[in-house]
Give the backbone structure.
Amino acid sequence: MLFVTFQFALFLGALLLVLRLLSGRGSAISNAVLLGASLVFYSLWLPAYLPLLLVDIGVNYGLLQAMRAAAPGSGRRRALLAASIVFTIGLLLYFKYAAFLLESALPALQTLSLELPVPEILLPLGISFYSFQIVSLAVDVYREDGPPPSGLAQYALYIAFFPQLIAGPILRGRELLPQLAAGMQRTPERTRRGFWLLASGIAKKVIVADFLLAPFADELFGAAGVGNARFHWVGLYAFAFQIYFDFSGYTDMARGIALWLGYELPENFHEPYLSRSPQEFWQRWHMTLSRWLSLYLFIPISRALLRRVPDHAGRLAIAATQLITMSLCGLWHGAGWHFVVWGVLQGVLLVLWPARRGRGHRAPLRLADGPAIFLFFHVFCLTLVFFRAPDASAALAYLEALFVPGELPGWPRLAAAAVALSALLHVAERALRPRARDLQAWFARRPGRAFAEAVAFGLLVGLAILVSGAGGEFIYFQF
C-alpha cells in the first residue's frame, strides 16, 4: 500500500479518526492502536512475511531483556548482544543474499561436480531498514547509550512504526522511544508542518521523479548505446535526480504522516547534490544510514584496527575501514556485484578526495564553491551507473556510451529541460529549507489560510493523479 494511493488515504483517514476518538485515553491505548495499524499496514504488502517480522521482534526483545538483566561488561551480556546481532543479520543474509551468494559460488561448485538449485526467495519488504534499527537499539542498550523500551508493545512499535517501517529514516531508540512513552503530541504547528511535508513529498515523488525523470532514465538504461553520448549524459542526470526526488519524497511523506500522528522523525536529506566533497555528501545523503554506518561499523572497526597496528599505520587503518564500511554499504543496497563496486567506489572517493578543512556540510555555499560542486556531482554520477544498471557488464556498456559520439544527432530537449528544472528545484530547496518554518508561520497568520492550504493540496494531488496515476513504487523499496 503506497503512500500515494487512494487505499492508503482511506487507511490513514480511518486511523486518524480512531486516534481522535480515543484521545485522552493515555499513551498505552494510542500506542496499541498504532501498533495494530502498523502491523495491518505491513501485512497488506505480503501477509506471509508478517510472522517473520513478529518473530524478529519477539526474539530480539527477549534477548534485549536478558541483556539488560546481565551485569554491565559481563561475558553473558556480550554473548546476548552477539546473539541478537547474529540472529537479526542472519535473517537479513538469508532472505536478501542467499540466492546471490549461491549463484556467485556456482562456477566453483560446478568444478567439484556439485549442482545446487538457486532458491527463489522473495525479499521481505523493509527488512534492510528494520534489521538495522533492531541492531542499533541492541547496541545502544548494551552500551547504556539511550533509554530501553518499557515493554514488548513499545519495542514492537519502535520497530514497526508504519510511516518509516519500509524505507526509513533509520531511527535510534533515543529518537522514538521517549516520544512513544509520552504519547502522541498532536499540535496545530505539527499538523501544519506535516501537511507541507506530505505535499512536498507527493510533488517530489509523483510529479518530478515518476513523471518528469523516470521515463527517460529508464529508456536510456534499458538501451545503452542507443542514441549518442549527449542522450546518455542526460539519462544519467535524470536518474541522479530521480533517485533523489524519489527517496527524499518518501522521507518527506513519512515525516509528514508521523507529524500528523504526533511524532517527530529525523531529517534524511540536505540537498546532497550541492556537496563539495564525498565527505560532505555522506553528511547530506540518507543521513540516518550514514549515521548508522558511522556508529555501528566505522567507529568500532577503526578502533579495533587502530589498537592492533603501529602508530605510523593509523592512516592506512582508517582508509581500510572506510573501504570496508562503504563496500558493505553497497552490498546493503542490493545483492549484486555492481552494488559492491558502487560501494567500493564510494570508499575510494572518501579515501582519496581531499578533505575541505574548515568547510563542513553546515558551511554556507559561496560562488567559489561552484567548481567543486560541479566536479563532485559528475564524479558521483559516474559511480551511479553501477547503482542503476542491472549488472556490471551493463554498467560498463553505459559508461562506454557516455564517451562514444553515437550515430543519432541532436539533443533530448524535453528530458534535458526536466533535468534542468530538477536542478533548479534542488537549489531552491537549499535556499528555502532554513526559512521553511518562518514561511509556514507567516502563512499560518494569513486570513483564510486553511482554505488556501486545502485548495493547494487538492490541486497538487489532482495534478499528481493527472500526470502519473498513483505513481510507481519507491526505488528504495527494492533494498
User: Anything to note?
Assistant: The chain has two domains: 27-184, 189-276+356-478. The radius of gyration is 23 Å. Residues 27-184 form one domain. The mean pLDDT is 88.
